[in-house]
Amino acid sequence: MADEAYKGQVAAFEARIARGEKIEPGDWMPDAYRKQLIRMISQHAHSEVVGMLPEGVWITRAPNLRRKMVLLAKVQDEAGHGQYLYHAAETLGVGRDEMIAALLDGRAKYASVFNYPTLGWADVAAIGWLVDGAAIMNQTMLAHCSYGPYSRAMVRICAEEGFHKKQGQEMIIRYAAGTATQRAMAQEAIDRWWWPALMMFGPHDSASSNTPQLVRWGIKTKTNDQLRQEFIDDMVPALQTLGLSVPDPEMRYDAATGHWAGREIDWDEFWRVIQGDGPMNASRLDARRQAHEDGRWVREAAAAYGEKQPGSGSAGEQGRKESLLPPCAPAPLHPSESTT
Amino acid sequence: MNDQWPRYEVFKQERDGGPFRNVGSVHAPDAEMALLNARDVFARRPACRCLWVVPAAAIVATPIVVNAAGDAEPDDVSGPLEPYAVCGKSSERQAMTYVDYLGRVEARSAAEALRAAPALGAARIWWVFPERVISRSDPEDAPGLEAATGKLFRMSNQYHTVVTMQKIRRGDEGEE
What we know:
The structure holds two protein chains of two kinds. By secondary structure, chain A is mainly alpha-helical. Chain A has helices spanning 2-18, 31-50, 52-56, 65-90, 96-104, 122-142, 148-176, 180-199, 211-216, 224-241, 267-274, 281-294, 296-308, 335-338; strands at 252-254, 259-261.
């Protein structure tokens, strides 16, 4: 009987998604949908936060004031995007403190691309065009996803990422038309970031066990390999137009398929970096832990100040909390799920 | 590490006369800090005229989550008659399903406000909360909220990369 009721709930839920409706916090959802979203959104939030680090080290070495202001604004955006996304994950019943603890103690995953070092100024340009460009493809898809808070966060993030991509592309265009040294600097940066950018789209479809369910539930509308192919088809001709190349001697246009195709990604490297063994994994986590510790006195001061404010109880309102349901309470688990 | 503070939902009005739209949330020890955090996170673009913060614990959401005891309604505790804010979506479909402040109803409880809310007309009513719990940015804060519109280099339409690439493809001069 309970199973029949559960199947009915799932059918109604999937029918809503098929009609193009957004699922909102508090709506009934299968526990697996909630878990997949928490996994994806929290990883995405961590990626934004860790993503400040590779470029942040270049702020003090920007070549002029305009580039410095642009880079400052971009890094500030990444911090804001992390906040948007932690919020979206919280609506599913997970705490921000839990997510940050998971990042700081190394349990959480984030985009492996940020575990590579930025060795020159043009890396800032290449990250903007390639890495933010790849992120936009993924995020444009997610802006259409079935979960309302994630979708809305993505709409805002995509609008801001457009600036990130274009400021990087603008630099590569200029350096490609510049002196031999500038062209070499741009090419070296493209060579460094091409493969990590391709890896951003995630594992090969055959190794992505989550994808079929994510597509079925309208969280993803394209597979990792579909998005990766769109990126390659977009980037290779653009770089060639500028007299630059991708670091893949086998990259060819296949007239039969209408697509560019090159070597296979080094999946051993992909999984190694995901598992924590990339060039910068330890450094990135150390930097996050240090930032968290350095901010402790600010949090303590703000908490002490807050406690002194009249009427500023733990929830900022008086005595009503007990009588109201939280807006984002997770739906009760189906009995068959809660035991596993 | 229990230092995350209460959550406040943030509403932003981009321009005079525009809707107050839910843009996300912040954590803060009090409403004043919540407004400051909301400015840092949500006023960066594209524009911001006014911010509201609302303690999340004061918000009642719909559809009402069925609790373990099977109760489908929030506790219908009756208080004084007062204005309740009603928020909802104008459409259930498509990517741009924003949640806006729709207006107010007079009610003695959140449950009563939820029953009265459909009169405001929306595809979906989402939240109600007493209007007295809203903390609003001060008109004096306006200069601090203009960060987005004052820094054009943060806007993607200030970069003409698409046209530049087209020119280079045609063999024209590459520089803008």
